[in-house]
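Class prep. Protein, please:
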Amino acid sequence: MLKLKKITLTLFISLLICLAAAGIAAGSGGGGGDGTGGANHPELVESSVRDGQEGVAIDVVIDLVFSNNVVHFSIAENNKASFILRDGMNDAVPIEVLMGDEQIDPSIRRNITVAPLAPLKYDTRYTLVILQSLTARNGNSMAADVTLTFTTQSNPSLPQEPQPAPNTPAVTETPAQIEPPTETPVQDEPTAPPAQIEEIARPEAPPDRLEETARPDTPETKPEDRQTSETAEEGPASSARRELRASWMTYAVLAAVAALIAFGAFYFRKR
């Protein structure tokens, strides 16, 4: 009877240790990009239309990516009402806010698409406003409103005025003036020696100038551009590594607990 009580107490303690370890692992890896934990505010991290972009198509569809889960069913209706598109006269433009089902495809839990219900006007300035009321699954809303301003393309059916090339002076034609012919007395010119004539007829360019002309400068990639590209590519990969590390930690703790239980049972059975 005493042995049975010891085994039961050992199993109970092992279960508590297992639950505590699983909670710690979930807390360390669950506050990332899915927006289910942590106290971070949702932020706009990517947009298919840049702020200040010109020449945008009139049938544009704006794809947005946020830092947290913003499509969960508990916040979907609130977030659909957090987008406003205004034209140059500050009038609201009808739009449709599209969200995917994260239960079917978890990879789209941070994606929202804004699509105008009708083609936009040519050569018009528009502003997309993302209100502060946009909320993540963790219950936190955005820190402030976010605006994206863009200009649509010109009407291709209208004639385009030719634009002068930059830094090119305008060429003006001046009428040629006709001067009366004048008679010039013929003068005998001294004849140069043949060797001097060949030297005058064959000028040679300096070698250094020829090499400089044949070698145009090539633009070098700035370190800031390379750093920005590498930083943009590390976001999804680092999030996947954190989730994989959290999963392996959970499996390791469970395996250790199982080994402890087996050892306790074997030890008390021997006694």
Notes: The helical segments are 2-29, 76-80, 194-201, 207-214, 223-270. Residues 223-270 form the longest helix (48 residues).
